């Protein structure tokens, strides 16, 4: 691997997918129409053993290559893509995301401006079913998930829904931990940070992501996150009384913070604010129940 990137570096975009054919097509259509020269990038789609036939969709796009990874887990799929990636720069997104038309151009530009950085985390905008009247579940989703600037500044990682890096970083810190079904981007990002690499948040590197519209969707996502965090943080090794204290503290709802954040986002409806807080409390109780099950299993 060269230490210095070329003026117009070749970029590999890696997308894991499980079913989700309609949104995958939308994502690939946007990636086919980037401002970055088509001669300078490729898109690798890794089918994580879907029940849908996704190859005909991928084959419609000249920039895209189709692979299959049967081992369950998006991090296994991403590692499979990395094994054949040709890019001097690596971009990651998901099949349900819609990249901006200049996404690759902006991502590559930030990597070039910050040589040797560990990763660039792009901004993730949220798509509401009705932009002028989002549901409380959609508001919660947009407040709780995929907060890239916060992830970089406070958590020292970035979500793989919108991330750029280089092969040199993977050579240095290793691949994604494919034993994890959730939280693998967090675990990998922390390794990058621990190795001393700078992490950049770039608000002009944009993708859009649909919000979840039901409690069941959000809870399903969070249960995966809870399990990943439980194992990453080795909570099973925490003394029982300390573990129970952590759960009690975590369940307490930050009502004042949520009210303030909702007001800053322009949510004036008091009923929606209260609903979001109750949704938060319900999900916190779900987290406590999930972690207790894992601890005592």
Question: Could you characterize what this model shows?
Answer:
The chain has 297 residues and is of the alpha/beta class. It has two domains: 11-210, Spore Coat Polysaccharide Biosynthesis Protein SpsA, Chain A; 234-296, no CATH class. 47% of the residues lie in helices and 16% in strands. The protein has helices at 21-32, 55-58, 74-84, 103-113, 136-144, 148-155, 167-173, 184-194, 215-232, 240-251, 255-264, 270-296, and strands at residues 11-17, 41-47, 64-68, 89-92, 98-99, 119-127, 163-165, 199-210. An eight-stranded mixed sheet has the order 3-2-1-4-7-6-8-5, with helices on both faces. Helix 5 packs across helix 12 and helix 9 (215-232) crosses helix 12 (270-296). The protein is globular, with a radius of gyration of 20 Å. The mean pLDDT is 88.
Outline the secondary-structure elements.
Layout: E1 11-17, H1 21-32, E2 41-47, H2 55-58, E3 64-68, H3 74-84, E4 89-92, E5 98-99, H4 103-113, E6 119-127, H5 136-144, H6 148-155, E7 163-165, H7 167-173, H8 184-194, E8 199-210, H9 215-232, H10 240-251, H11 255-264, H12 270-296
Helix pairs in contact: 5-12, 9-12, 10-12, 11-12
Q: With helices defined by DSSP (H or I, 4 residues minimum), what is the helix count?
A: 12
Q: What is the radius of gyration computed over CA atoms, rounded to a whole number of angstroms?
A: 20 Å
Question: What name does the CATH topology of the largest domain carry?
Answer: Spore Coat Polysaccharide Biosynthesis Protein SpsA, Chain A
CATH class membership of the largest domain:
Alpha Beta
Beta-strand content bin: 15-25%
Q: What is the name of the CATH superfamily of the largest domain?
A: Spore Coat Polysaccharide Biosynthesis Protein SpsA, Chain A
Architecture per CATH nomenclature, i.e. the level-2 architecture of the largest domain: Alpha-Beta Complex
How many domain modules?
2
